[in-house]
Amino acid sequence: MALIYKLFKLDPNSREGVVSATSILSVIVNLFVALMKVVVGLLASSIAIVSEGVNNATDALSSILTLVGTKLAAKAPDAKHPFGYGRIEYLTNMVIASFILVGGAEMMLNSIKLIFNPEKLNVSYVSLAVVAISAIIKYFLGVYTIKTGKRVGSQSLEAVGVDCRNDSFVSVVTIISSLV
Predict the structure, then answer these.
(1) Which of 10, 48, 46, 159 minimizes the C-alpha distance to 95?
(2) Can you state the angle between helices 155-179 and 47-73, rounded to 10 degrees?
(3) Winning range, highest mean pLDDT, from 13-22, 60-69, 71-80
(4) CB-based contacts of 73, cutoff 8 Å, min separation 6
(5) For the stretch 57-74, what's the b/e string if a residue is b when 16 or more beta carbons lie within 10 angstroms of its beta carbon?
(6) What percent of the chain clears pLDDT 70, i.e. is strictly above it?
(7) Which of 24, 31, 22, 52 is nearest to 132 (CA)?
């Protein structure tokens, strides 16, 4: 985290700095995990793993929204907004919740389609290992993000953290279903 604070010139003692650094960390981790899952999912012909990768990419977008919302909410009041911009964080929370809802609905619909039109599944121990590693990474990122969100009073960070942590549970279910 110290590197992120330094590279992006963020104040580790301010709420905005902490939320921004945590969001940047989340973007980096989610894009890495997304790329890893999409590549492995395509190689294994696994729609479940590819879907998880796409979900991780949308998680990165949620973190970007948290970053933007925090930056805008920190703006000083002006003539157009005499009470400031603090409520912008509520709007970003709503957009993040919409992403989570749409992503979950999309995965559910894809799963239902596969029940009626099953495809041959090529599962390797390598692909399962990648999913397991990503589950561990996402779990710890989620726990860290939730803890940081609570510490600085950022509901956006908490929501992103809960989504990350829940993604790790989905990965575990994917591993179990692949083994079955």
Answers:
(1) 159
(2) 170
(3) 13-22
(4) 84, 85, 86, 87, 88, 89
(5) bbbbebbbbbbebbeebb
(6) 98
(7) 52
Instruction: Report the C-alpha gap between 47 and 118 in whole angstroms.
Output: 11
What type of residue is 1? M
- Please check whether residue 15 is in contact with residue 152, taking contact to mean a CB–CB distance below 8 angstroms: yes
Contact 92, 65 (CB under 8 A): yes
State whether the Cα torsion 123-125-130-132 is positive or negative: positive
pTM score: 0.83
SS3 83: coil
Residue 158, both tokens: 């908490």
Collapsed DSSP state (helix, strand, coil) of residue 13: coil
**pLDDT 10s digits, 98-149:** 887 887 787 788 778 878 888 776 667 888 898 899 999 999 999 999 999 9
Residue among 112, 23, 17, 126 at smallest CA distance from 65: 23
Return the SS3 of 153: coil
Closest CA to 65 of 103, 37, 97: 97
What sign results for the dihedral spanned by CA atoms 176, 177, 178, 180?
Answer: positive
